[in-house]
Design goal:
A six-stranded parallel sheet has the order 3-2-1-7-8-9, with helices on both faces. The chain has a three-stranded antiparallel sheet with strand order 5-4-6, covered by helices on one side. By secondary structure, the chain is an alpha/beta fold. The structure holds ligand BJW.
């Protein structure tokens, strides 16, 4: 069996990383949606760096939860059974990798990396990032930005994602609101391509009606149960 899993912020919520439409905690200081744009970065790079620096620090202290662990387990089992799990995440955290996932496609980039707008080289970056930091590759100062995809920018690895979507048997969306494209359109593409579709979320997402199968509850509980059911069917 080949499964395409799309994860969103809800998958990491119980690891302590806020979702985009969560108004509490970390997010009280910032409006994530208005900051996630190239225009915001051009207008006020210090504010945008502060937002991502806070999230990077938070991420370094976070741990994967049972949903990340269950997906890593399913990926390992399917890879040995002539199938596979293509794990596509909108999340910029690395909790899938830290739970043991061997393949993760980060369509919206990665928080623990910086990208140079002068030479385009992407560098691992765990500390705070600021306007005066120098690119380790071209040594330019003032050209580093978080390696994330903002509104109006092209998501990463789209060819690989399209191809994986068309070769899967089942499409599963976990903890995503279905509000941001192109990811929100994957379920329609999947249905047109004849895949089975399943939504796992705390509550019904904006495009819940498009999914044939739905499971609601916290990801740390619903994902391991769903994974055990898939494993039992193999
Ligand atoms: C739980 C839970 C628990 C909670 N357990 N569940 C008009 C119409 C259509 C499209 C457009 C339009 N105008 C503009 C566009 C395009 C635009 C877009 O979609 N805008 C919409 C707002 C309308 N998209 C873009 O600009 C994208 N680029 C693009 O389209 O380029 C053209 C192109 C397309 C295709 C090929 C080639 C080119 C880029 C989008 C970039 C998004 N970037 C961000 C920031 C990334 C960096 C960062 O992290 O800061 O990505 S925005 C933000 O939203 C982030 C997320 O990855 C993304 C999705 O959010 P997500 O994951 O769904 O989180 P939430 O908070 O929305 O939802 C959480 C869910 O979890 C909820 O459902 C909860 O119920 C659930 N939950 N706790 C289970 N414990």
């Amino acid at each position: 069996m080949k499964i395409f899993v799309l994860t969103g912020a809800g998958c990491s919520a119980e690891s302590g990383l806020g979702t985009f439409r969560d108004k509490g905690g970390l997010w009280a200081r910032f409006d994530p949606i208005t900051l996630a744009t190239p225009e915001a970065f051009a207008r006020d790079p210090d504010e945008v760096h502060a937002f991502y620096n806070l999230r990077r620090r938070n991420l370094l202290e976070a741990e994967p939860n049972a949903a990340h662990a269950a997906l890593a387990q399913l990926q390992a089992v399917l890879s040995q059974k002539n199938g596979g799990l293509f794990l596509c995440t909108q999340n910029v955290d690395d909790l899938h990798e830290r739970a043991g996932a061997q393949q993760v496609t980060h369509m919206h980039g990665e928080l623990r990396k910086a990208r140079c707008m002068a030479c385009e080289v992407v560098t691992p970056w765990d500390g705070d990032l600021g306007r005066l930091d120098r690119c380790p590759s071209c040594h330019n100062s003032g050209s580093l930005r978080p390696h994330v995809v903002w509104f109006g920018e092209t998501p990463l690895s789209m060819d690989e994602i399209e191809s994986a979507l068309h070769s899967a048997d089942l499409f599963v969306a976990i903890g995503t609101s279905g509000a941001v494209y192109p990811a929100a359109g994957f379920v329609s593409t999947a249905r047109q391509a004849g895949l089975q579709t399943c939504e796992i979320n705390l509550e019904a997402s904006e495009n819940a009606h498009v999914f044939e199968e739905r499971h609601y509850g916290p990801a740390s509980l619903t994902v391991p149960i769903w994974v055990q059911n898939i494993l039992a069917e193999l």
